[in-house]
Amino acid sequence: LSEKVQAIYMWWHRPAIDRELLQSLPNLKVIANSGVGMDHLDLKLIASFGVKMANVPHAVSSSTADAGMALLLASARRLVEVHHIAMSSDIDYCEADILGVKVSGSTLGIIGMGRIGYKIALRAKAFEMKILYHNRTRRKAQEEQAVGATYCEKIDSLLQQADFVMLVVNLTPQTHNLIGKRELELMKPTATLINISRGAVVDQEALVMALQTGVIRAAALDVTYPEPLPRLDHPLLKLKNVIITPHLGIKTDKTMYMITEEAVENILAALNGLPMPSEVLPS
Amino acid sequence: MWYHKPVVNKELLQSLPNLRIVASSGVGIDHLDLKLLSSFGVKVSNTPFIVSTDTADLGMALMLASSRRLVEGYEMAVSPDTENFPADWLGTQVSGATLGIVGMGTIGYKVAERAKAFEMKILYHNRSQRKKEEESAVGAVYCKKIDDLLQQSDFVLLTVNLTPQTHKLIGKRELELMKPTATLINISRGLVVDQDALVEALQNKVIKAAALDVTYPEPLPRDHPLLKLKNLIITPHIGSATKKTRRTMMEEMTESIEAGLAGLPIPREVL
């Protein structure tokens, strides 16, 4: 059987691609990933076996942008908290205690303005949000104008002005712990951090401290490190001003379908010796 | 007046001979008997426009939270029993889906503006059709018959006033016209929906889910069947509940009261 395998379509990081597996599949030509993040794969190792790799950037962008906005709105309007109040037997609450933060007209800082970041900007613009962004490279002028986004070459400038900071970067050695104690302290005390990228982009211990001491107002995390968080008393699981979701960025019926379509397209191209629409090269 | 209290009835009005003005918070005035107040020579004001953006934001928040199963997801993420996140746990896509807006006033239109950025197809039902430029700006298609909207929408969002005509606008018939995969979002008034019919529809999966910022009464009695449903998000009437907006509402109400007491034209008077 192992001689017959030419392609692997990965589903949520399985199977684990290690040297053993690669050695046991001599005719493997391509690995397609069911998502856009490739940080769980040793790209150099895979390439050294002459195996091509692909991700699915187009399929995931809309639903992940939607999830980012869902988290931003849920956190700002305290949706999870007040839902529990509305459903619970304890209905004595003070109205002043359930006030949220206005989203429309506020400032959104997008860190990582790739495909997903840009779709977030398009959505945020409709909420009349002022948009700042930080990225390795600046976007074209027309792209900036279309969403009214202002480039912040220095991340500090974005952090100091934003009411909502949204992380939409790849996980790389450069973005590991990108948001730590220093960055959190630069943020406004009324600001909210939203992470839809990878858990390791944030220094989680620093985040816990910042949330406990009011350095920032709240956080909404679709991703953590690890996933799920260890159950035994992890502080993030207990904080009132945190929403955690189970890495649901791409988890919709429609997107699952599109992911498979895009992955299969790449696999067929690789098997037929044609250029792959979303090939990922080790770099 | 804040959250419909105190109740303004004949007894109260008779006991307050020098009452000149009732300033009501928010935009809805369905809780006020305007004819009665007028007969006592008492003027009425509300705070119509300031609430629109936050309420539209909340409508979007509820649609996104419901479709992506945010509350369930949160509970799973923090539950002591969770060992892994299941691979087949899916929500419903918002981007590219069809939104049907019932009531295209100020708030409904703001919802349309937001939904357009999510590449949603927008249908709307309203007493009157909007101008062509307004429709094209948000890509909204008019449905003269509410049935057409109900049959095609993945999300049905209610943003009407409560009037005798909109009372129980969404009942058993309307819920059955909706797709079984559809979600109902109510940010208008609890009485716009036949609540008993909604309970049945949710229990029998006639529709997929609902998200309600408003119910009748508010709050619901603690043994109400709605509170037992899993495919439901309820929020405690927080449409305008942001610090900024509440502050502005109070400023506007104070301004109306001062004008009323000074015998000057009243900003935001309700006639």
UniProtKB/TrEMBL annotation, chain A:
Superkingdom of the organism of origin: Eukaryota
Return the similarity comment: Belongs to the D-isomer specific 2-hydroxyacid dehydrogenase family.
Q: Which GO terms describe its molecular function?
A: glyoxylate reductase (NADPH) activity; hydroxypyruvate reductase [NAD(P)H] activity; NAD binding
What gene, per UniProt, encodes this protein?
A: Grhpr_0
The UniProt record lists the keyword Oxidoreductase: yes
Q: Which SUPFAM superfamilies match?
A: Formate/glycerate dehydrogenase catalytic domain-like, NAD(P)-binding Rossmann-fold domains
Q: What is this protein called?
A: Glyoxylate reductase/hydroxypyruvate reductase
User: Which regions form coiled coils?
Assistant: none
Alphabetically ordered keywords of this record: Oxidoreductase
Q: Which residues form the D-isomer specific 2-hydroxyacid dehydrogenase NAD-binding domain?
A: 69-249
- The residue ranges of the D-isomer specific 2-hydroxyacid dehydrogenase catalytic domain are 9-280
Pfam families the record matches: 2-Hacid_dh, 2-Hacid_dh_C
Gene Ontology CC terms:
cytosol
UniProtKB/TrEMBL annotation, chain B:
Keyword set for this entry? Answer: Oxidoreductase
Gene Ontology cellular-component terms listed: cytosol
SUPFAM superfamilies the record matches: Formate/glycerate dehydrogenase catalytic domain-like, NAD(P)-binding Rossmann-fold domains
Molecular function terms from GO: glyoxylate reductase (NADPH) activity; hydroxypyruvate reductase [NAD(P)H] activity; NAD binding
UniProt superkingdom: Eukaryota
Limits of the D-isomer specific 2-hydroxyacid dehydrogenase NAD-binding domain: 60-239
What Pfam family is a match, any one?
2-Hacid_dh_C
Q: Where is the D-isomer specific 2-hydroxyacid dehydrogenase catalytic domain?
A: 2-270
Q: Which PANTHER family does UniProt cross-reference here? A: 2-HYDROXYACID DEHYDROGENASE-RELATED (PTHR10996), 2-KETOGLUCONATE REDUCTASE (PTHR10996:SF236)
The entry's family comment says:
Belongs to the D-isomer specific 2-hydroxyacid dehydrogenase family.
Report what the protein is called: Glyoxylate reductase/hydroxypyruvate reductase
Originating organism: Mionectes macconnelli
